Amino acid sequence: MNRPPLGVLVALALGSCAIPVDREAAESIPTDLAVSKLAELLPKAAYVKSLDPWVSVDQSDIKAWSVTKDGFEFRSSRKEPFRLLWSFSRGTEVSKVPLRYEVRLYAMVPGNARKAVYHFYWKDEAEARRAAELFEALRGDR
Questions:
Q1: Mean pLDDT per segment of 10 residues, for the chain of length 142 residues?
Q2: How would you class 127 by CB atoms within 10 Å of its CB: exposed for 0-12, middle for 13-18, buried for 19 or more?
Q3: Residue 28, SS3?
Q4: Quick one: which H or E segment has residue 55?
Q5: How many domains, in total, are found in the chain?
Q6: What is the pLDDT of residues 84-104, one digit of tens each?
Q7: Kind plus residue range of the DSSP H or E element containing 113
Q8: CA-CA distance, 101 to 94, in Å (whole number)?
Q9: Which of 15, 34, 53, 100 stands the most exposed, by the fewest C-beta atoms within 10 Å?
């Protein structure tokens, strides 16, 4: 049986860790500012993973981003755009994963009050933290 070397498994386990999000600071960000800053930041994500449908989209495959006071949307080569209304947004988490920083965006969906629906990946920790704070500022359950 082929098993990965123990060192690789340990490195992967140590490479993933949660990074705190300053939710108090996020609450003080005005909606208009959060929308404009998120519109600048989302196109800098290396790629986005949608969990329903399960698909990863590289930034180079995204044709357009739209961020408004009502929600966000991005279009790729797939027929249907990906979108989320802020009224359904229920928070974020940031994690250091191997070679990147992952921002998980949670939303209220039928049968689940807080389900991970999108994962965004940045190479820069500061950008990932800032995106998480901006997503938090636009949560629908505030």
A1: 56 70 93 98 96 93 97 93 96 95 96 95 97 96 82
A2: middle
A3: coil
A4: strand 54-58
A5: 1
A6: 999 999 999 999 999 999 999
A7: strand 112-122
A8: 7
A9: 53
Q: How far apart are CA 56 and CA 76, in angstroms?
A: 11
Asked if the structure places residue 6 within a domain, the reply is: no
Report yes or no: 132 and 101 within 8 Å, Cβ to Cβ.
no
Please check whether residue 95 lies inside any domain of the structure.
Answer: yes
d(CA 59, CA 114): 26
One-letter amino acid for residue 95 of the chain: S
- Sheet with 100-109: list strands edge to edge: 17-19, 89-97, 100-109, 112-122, 47-51, 54-58
- CATH of residue 31's domain is 2.30.29
Question: 103's torsion region: left (phi>0), alpha (psi -120 to 50) or beta?
Answer: beta
Backbone angles phi, psi at 127, to 5 degrees: -65, -40
Can you list the alpha helix ranges (DSSP code H) found in the chain?
A: 6-15, 23-27, 31-41, 125-137
137: its two tokens: 């500022």
Average pLDDT, the chain: 91
User: Is 2 inside a domain boundary?
Assistant: no
Q: Is residue 127 part of a domain?
A: yes
Chain centre distance of CA 67: 14
